[in-house]
Specification:
The protein is an alpha/beta fold. The chain contains 18 helices and 14 strands. Bound molecules: 1-deoxynojirimycin. 1-deoxynojirimycin binds at residues 70, 73, 218-219, 354, 439, 490, 497, 506. GO terms for molecular function: beta-glucosidase activity.
Length: 545
Amino acid sequence: MFTPNKTTLEELWDQIEYINPVQVAAKSNLTNSTEFVLPSDPTHDMPTHPYEETKYLKFPKDFKYGVSSSAPQSEGAVKEDGRGPTIWDYIPHLFPPSVEPTIDIVADFYHRYKNDISRVKAMGINSYSLTIAWSRIYPLGTGQANEVGLEFYDRVIDELLRNNIEPMVSLLHFDTPFALLAQYGDFMSPKIVADFNNYAETVFRRYGDRVKRWITINEPRTYCKAATYFPYDRAYPTGINAQNAEWHCIHNILVAHGTAVQTYRRLIKEKVIVSGQIGVKNEFAKPAPYTDSKEDKEAADRVADFLLGIVAKPIFVDGDYPILCKETLGDFLPPMTTEEQKLLKGSADFYIQNLYDVPRAKAAPNGIEACVSNRSDPLWPVCRDERIQYVSTVPDGWSNGQPSAPITPTFSNTWFAIRDQLKYLAKTYPSTGGIYIGEFGWPELLERKRDELYQIVSDYDREAYYLDYLHAFLLSVNEDDVNLKGVFAWAAFDDYEWIIGTEIKLGLQYVNFTDPALPRSYKRSFYSYSNFMRQHLRHGDFNSS
Ligand code: NOJ
């Protein structure tokens, strides 16, 4: 069981491996070969549905057309070349997903990055969103940097550039070094700000000549929602408890983001880095109110502030938290000092958001006022009725958009709400650097239960999802004047979907995790995304080099 204060590399791995030892990927002839076979395009004999309305519309010049993945969900090789453990090595060892793969191996991107890059290059992408694993660079989160870890990302970044693919690099994707949880309680402690900044400066200096777009943190809000649970709750620093942990985490994560951005800008000023942009990857759409009632509208506003505004407003508006959050949370939320407000305001060069769907919001059944004034109400502090997020306003309980896999009710194809959402984001959190969709994607229904390869790769619903969303993105740019600068599909290939493993899959490519060679196969959606972009990008933006 997790013991705080055990912080040497050995002690940390021991806590993980006492349950089961770390597994290592088998070597195979697929490993890192740039040779692969591109099967014929399945959409030729069964064309994807055309959209007359957008047939001749284009995305703007230099539009970033990309795919994404993250280190903990794809790399594997968790104990190799000096990498230290992260919280996401510990959790899956303790609660192994009921289905393969183990986080130890996953898609083995660590050994197959060349193969994977050449496979996505085949779809013409010009950008790839990836993450650096903090624990490869600083196995203990801080201290001595690990040169072998740094060299790995040199190779990955160079390989992308050789293929004419621009890397967009995130510094943290939930995978904080385990040592920092054991030492002081992770993002629940302000001590993390200096360690994150030190790590950020190391990678900015190392790759700043080649990486021109950075993300400090992926989904800070989701990160901190987990902060009240195991194993974070075993290492709360003094003064932190299950009630205030989430809000201290938000505060520290924002300050860590702002401090890293300040460092990045200083390095540009000092001419250590020539140029580049930096942002933070938000999540959670503003929901549509379930009905026109005042209460449901208020619920939608509350969700927007508590799940999105609490991170976005300080950065894009005025350095401070939304009033609703301050009023409701009271002393649970550390106040922003004047200095912190200055640090945060304007601390992003562009706006980037993961946008899978747009849910609904209905007021708490006992009314918002009663819920807000009762800290022990289970729906406090947001006070939305959590059962009604994916139900439409149409009577009789129809769903809000096409539902996906039942295990993940939080994904729906809500293409009809995407344009309004983008308008809302652009207006509420304006950025001169424009908007990016950091992730969008679809867990195909029952994909996991399909046995035959032809069934697995025939992901017609995912294909429809992509085409619907791309269609909406085109209209946003051309009809609504939204300054959309790029979109990244999640995910380049099947990976590890956190606690549920591969129970659901979102990849544009299938990875056969039961075969030690981990062969990849293109899915139909891979071709449709690519064909759509070939048709709608400006000359030169489709990467056919
Ligand atoms: C967003 C997260 O950043 C990513 O890690 C996750 O796999 C996708 N959502 C899908 O759930």
